[in-house]
What we know:
The complex is a heterotetramer, with 2 copies of chain A and 2 copies of chain C.
Chain A: H1 8-13, E1 20-23, H2 33-41, E2 47-50, H3 56-63, E3 67-72, H4 85-92, E4 97-100, H5 103-115, E5 119-122, H6 137-140, E6 157-160, E7 168-173, E8 179-188, E9 193-194, H7 202-208, E10 211-220, H8 222-226, E11 241-244, H9 262-271, H10 275-287, H11 292-299, H12 301-307
Parallel strand pairs in A: 1-2, 1-8, 2-3, 3-4, 8-10, 10-11
Antiparallel strand pairs in A: 5-7, 6-7, 8-9
Helix pairs in contact in A: 3-4, 5-7
Chain C: H1 19-28, E1 36-39, H2 43-53, E2 60-63, E3 67-68, E4 90-91, H3 94-102, E5 108-112, E6 115-116, E7 122-123, E8 126-129, E9 132-136, H4 143-149, E10 152-157, E11 177-180, E12 185-188, H5 189-193, E13 200-206, E14 209-213, E15 220-225, H6 231-236, H7 256-266
Amino acid sequence: xxxxxxxxxxxxxMIQDGSMITFSGFxxxxxxxxxxxxxxxxxxxxxHLIEVNSGTHTEMLMGAGAVSIxxxxxxxxxxxxxxxxxxxxxxxxxxxxxxxYSHQHILYRMQAGAAGVPYLPTWASRGxxxxxxxxxxxxxxxxxxxxxPRIPFQKFGYAPDPFYNEGEIxxxxxxxxxxxxxxxxxxxxxxxxxxxxxxxxxxxxAKAADKVIVIAEEIVPESYLREDPDRNLLPSxxxxxxxxxxxxxxxxxxxxxxxxxxxxISDFATASKTESGTQDWLDExxxxxxxxxxxxxxxxxxxxxxxxxxxxxxxxxxxKRGSN
Amino acid sequence: xxxxxxxxxxxxxMIQDGSMITFSGFxxxxxxxxxxxxxxxxxxxxxHLIEVNSGTHTEMLMGAGAVSIxxxxxxxxxxxxxxxxxxxxxxxxxxxxxxxYSHQHILYRMQAGAAGVPYLPTWASRGxxxxxxxxxxxxxxxxxxxxxPRIPFQKFGYAPDPFYNEGEIxxxxxxxxxxxxxxxxxxxxxxxxxxxxxxxxxxxxAKAADKVIVIAEEIVPESYLREDPDRNLLPSxxxxxxxxxxxxxxxxxxxxxxxxxxxxISDFATASKTESGTQDWLDExxxxxxxxxxxxxxxxxxxxxxxxxxxxxxxxxxxKRGSN
Amino acid sequence: MEKVLVQNKxxxxxGEYTAADxxxxxxxxxxxxxxxxxAGTGLPVLAVMLAAxxxxxxxxxxxxxxxxxxxxTSLPSSVGDPRCVEGCxxxxxxxxxxxxxxxxxxxxxxxxxxxIDQYGNVNTTVVGDYLNPDMRFPGSGGNNDINSLAKRTVFxxxxxxxxxxxxxxxxxxxxxxxxxWPSGEWMHxxxxxxxxxxxxxxxxxxxxxxxxxDEETGRMYVDTLHPGITEEILQENTxxxxxxxxxxxxxxxxxxxxxxxxxxxxxxxxxxxPKK
Amino acid sequence: MEKVLVQNKxxxxxGEYTAADxxxxxxxxxxxxxxxxxAGTGLPVLAVMLAAxxxxxxxxxxxxxxxxxxxxTSLPSSVGDPRCVEGCxxxxxxxxxxxxxxxxxxxxxxxxxxxIDQYGNVNTTVVGDYLNPDMRFPGSGGNNDINSLAKRTVFxxxxxxxxxxxxxxxxxxxxxxxxxWPSGEWMHxxxxxxxxxxxxxxxxxxxxxxxxxDEETGRMYVDTLHPGITEEILQENTxxxxxxxxxxxxxxxxxxxxxxxxxxxxxxxxxxxPKK
Lengths: 324, 324, 276, 276
């Protein structure tokens, strides 16, 4: 078997500027942050993000100037920052093309990509501006001409239902990312991925992509994961590279490992209100830090121990969350 | 919470003559046989089966004269009987309308039903007689007139791909069964279903149906299944009735419980070569047996102990399978 | 984690509860027992957890990140939180729950928004012209889908003139009178959805009032005013002319029992409800 | 369960192996290492298990009922068998594997059939007129889909005149020259599949010969004759005129090592290969 282990640096080097990228996780949960930081350190540019939803990681990529196209339905920091300030600025400066879909749309776009069909039908979002053809931003930018094979000719399609006469249904185009970066609790040395708790849209995102990079809390023997294969999420053969990076989803949280670091995200969200604040924050926490290990040391042990989850509850019983 | 426990008899009484029905399992694996036998004892008639694939259970239903429409892609006994003799006879006598699809078609029909869309697109089966409009048997029978809301107006549709110009894609109509009968390893008292090993197309079949009846090897506390909810297959709220029936999938096999009873299936397959052989077999093993418990006693303990799976391997290491 | 509380069903007096408390309690009262409820992050989670402790112990809570039937004992800060997984019937992913939503299995959804118009159209995307925005918000998320496909939707909103608008800047989530694309024609939701019409916005609960909808005209009307709020105050904080013709009077305040459950059981950490 | 065998790579002599042995061995040799292989019930399972023990230790086996990367130590009697689950990377269901198939991830598929024509069109559905059949067979199952969407397909067939036919009674599974519906026009597979053309039937292995296809004409030709089979015998057992122009000679017989693995490791129970 080919050895799929790489260093974080090597794995991220597989990502080309201009690529279409997607990620594991949901808003501020189980995002491949170690890979995001490394992408920033390697100064990836002109990325085309296609995400079922975005979050803190997306704001960081946008704030650093790495993103030129964003297709998704949501961006922000949940409880820790309601406004995606970096995206807001980049929209206004014209540096980013934003293509808005709904959750169901972009989820089905991934599923269409995973299933090898050019589109899927859905009833979601009738009667709303998401379907407004004036707001087809990739079309307005002249990018729906077929030159980029990953950008479909149309944002939406419509077709009558010939089977039950239910009327005109909405068609959403397949998402066909170059790369999907997953953060998981466990990966086997051949690439089998196990995710515990909610799996979000990871399965669809990984299967839609041409290349899959998996960062995991731990690399475990394949044989261990293959003893209970009905608990695994992704088969080994679709995974191209694996990296072990404990706490690699920090500051986002993950089931059974660690909680969201709300204070950390809040700090970034606050800093992100201005261009210079964003730069200062990135200088301190990304560019000024040489590696994932340095990042963890800078966070320090007691911070991480407060986030560590309780084995029974799968969330932290030590993290301070509210004001009481 | 409403109590969802019923006797096997009561649960099967929920199924109306003329209903569209689907089942858990794959060919000769994890079929809800106890419920099938009870359906036969209750003399269900005019059933419209829609199945991702069929097997011994279908042949029994057909042999007993319970089926009037069959939409699926495969019927037989695998290694234990290559020809579906009951179906063959009923086709020739004109008692059954057979609508042939491919595996992917009928699977996507279930998934469309589960997702609440009228159809899904697929590339499968281009260039074959499955798409031949002359072989649209429900259409030929005049049943695509909309009177039965569960029969679509067309067998297939075609539509161009407006997104990537990949050409004309095939559309398959949603399956919308009245009832899905599942056999599972475990069900909680509120209805949460856990299936171990391969899940086949159970998730799609159950979600496509309006009513779900679950027969399980054992009813366990909901709280037990809810401790590891990422291992469950179906949420409680879509399940209408639960029944405990150990060995309830016999003679089909199931992961971690018991192997296929190949000799038993072979006996039925051989008997099914003639109408009278089928009747004799049904008289002996179904109509002449008052209950699931009587059926198990008739099989006897040593037969079942040979089929019982090994806890490590999840299949039987005692069953004689080949000729050596 | 479950605590036994003395059930004091007396209504609290003004000053004994906050606007957020009233919002959560009024929202919880919208849940009928045994319903399948879809809840978004924030006050909606408070509302369903309160409902599960009071009037709707058998409701099934779906969180859009992928849990069904949660029985959380610790308040999830978001629908992706591992706390959603606790005691749930199934932890899966978005495809599972959005398929079930589209299948028509969701009775009630709780959602929020930045702007709303009198037809219940909601904007969570942008302030100003979409093509030249003043401020970008997070976007639809599942707001649009959930509101498209649940049988009833209850919106929980902050009452401000700039948020209750004659016309929303961007129609993210569909109300009772919507714009059908690709034609762009305005029409009643029932017409726009045709055979796939499952329902629509059922109530809007703000920090000042409870609104409902006339399903024929599609227009919002005032159902009850929160204690201390007059028609004048409400109209001043609304960007369109309100219909008070069917106003039933005052919104029932929280009971002491409901407040106790909110503060002692649902959010003892003070995540959404800091202690006074 | 794994046994260490002396690797005798000498070819077996006629009489030392059966037709089924040669079928399984010839099929196994079609597997390149590291390929993703889709296998149906029966001889195909023997072939991939043998390949995994010999020339293709890193192949990934997909069984259509829902397992990927099986490392079975006990021969599955069918693709739904729990034995398929042993050592696999993921045990899921049909939707998972058929989606991946349609995504173009399958390099090679092994399938069987009741009838085949010279273009590799296969019938597994019916003998006689579909509307008035002489005998009903099981039907497509996944045969059609897998053969539509795998990059290469190898068919394992019984050689009989009534099975190798000028035209199959029902075109269940698509070969190189197919009928495009809804028009019903015959055309080359490449044309029928257009941008979704991924490949097609690559070989047919019968108990008498190995056939391959001229991808331009779409016609089958004889690649090798099994030991003891002459052109005359083969033609007598075929319902259309065979093309021998590219025949390379004799099919390599099984080695003793291959036979040992088949009988001692792959099928020691004699499920598909009863001991002589």
